[in-house]
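Late entry, flavin mononucleotide complex.
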Amino acid sequence: MAAINFSDRAIRSRGYSADSPLGRAALAALRAPSLLNTQPWRWRVHDGSAELWADRSRQLTSIDPDGRLLILSCGIALHHAMVALTIIGHRPQVDVRPDATTPDLLAVVRAGAEQRPSFADQRAFQAMLARRTDRRPAPRDVCIPAYRLQQLRDAAERHGAHLHLLPHEQVPVLIVAATHAAAIETADPGVRGDLARWTHRPTGGGDGVTASSVVPQIPRRVPQREFLPNDDAGLDAGEGNDQTANYAILFSDGDEPADWLAAGQALSALLIAATEHRISVNPISNVVEVEPTRATLAGLLSQLGHPMIALRLSVAAATPPPPEPRRSPEEMIES
Ligand SMILES: Cc1cc2nc3c(=O)[nH]c(=O)nc-3n(C[C@H](O)[C@H](O)[C@H](O)COP(=O)(O)O)c2cc1C
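Prediction complete; structure with ligand written out below:
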C-alpha cells in the first residue's frame, strides 16, 4: 500500500516546516485528487497555522471559468489535510474562508488538542493514500450493496453536502446529458486547448492526466470524457461493461464558493469511505462544466439543490490502476 514517509530526512531538509504536524498534514494532502490533476492549491505553513490558498494560475479557464471545480478540488485537499492531522495526533481546527478581502485564502488550519487516533482514523488515512481514479468499466456481476451506498451518502451529509443516487429511470437522462456535454466541449477550441495542455505535461512535472490512467474509448453506459485518442490510451479497459455501476450526483444547498469548498470536503470523505469498502469512484464532471447540462442535473434533483459533480460508483477491480503523479512539496508548501 502507498505510504508517505513522514520522517524522510530529504523532506525535512527542504526548508519548510515538514516536520511540524501542519507541514506533515499539508504533505499528505498532496495526494488529493483534482480536476485533470491540476493540483490548484498552495499551502503556507507558518506561525502555528497552515493556510490553504487557491492557485488561480492552474485554473482551467475554458473548462472551469467560474473556478467551481478548482475550489472543489481545494476542498478535497483541505479534508485530506484534516484526516492526516488527525492521524498525526491532533484535533484539526479549521477556519473556512476567514477573510473575505482575500477570497483565494480558502481556509486556515491549526493543530488543536492532542488526541490519540482511533483505528477508524487509521483506516481512513490508509484509504486516503491508496485511493485512485479508476476509469475502467465496472466489473461484471458484482453490485455495490445498498447499505454501502447509504454509507457514502452519510459521508457526504456529514460535510454538509448530499448524494443523490440515480434510480434506473434517471440514468438515460444522465447518458443524454453526458453526450450533450461532450458535444458542447468538443466544439469549443478553448476546452480542447485545456484538455491538450493537461494531458501532455512536461515529463517530470508531477501533474496532469497521464496516458497510463486513460482507457480507450469503448461503448460505455454513460459516456466518459475523451482524454486522449485511442492509440495513446495506456490502460487496458478490461472485461467490465458498466452494467453493475451506480451513478450519483453530489449536490449542495447553495452555489457559492463556500458551498464548492464544502462539497470538496464531502467528496473527499466519500472517496475515502468508498476506498475503505473497495468501491471505486470515477468523477464525471463535464456534465457540470457546461450550463445546459448542469441545469439538466438540477432537474434530476427536482431543483432541490445545486449539482457539484456526477459520479460513477462500482465495485473496485482486483488490481488498482497505476498512480498518477503529484507535484513536489517544494512547489506546493511554503513556510
Ligand atoms: C473536480 C474533479 C473533476 C474530475 N473530473 C473527472 C472527469 O470528468 N473524468 C475522469 O475520468 N476523471 C475526473 N476526475 C479525476 C481526476 O482526473 C483525477 O483525480 C486526477 O487525474 C488524479 O488522479 P488520481 O485520482 O488517480 O489520484 C476529476 C477529479 C476531480 C477532483
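The chain has eleven helices and nine strands. Will revisit in the morning.
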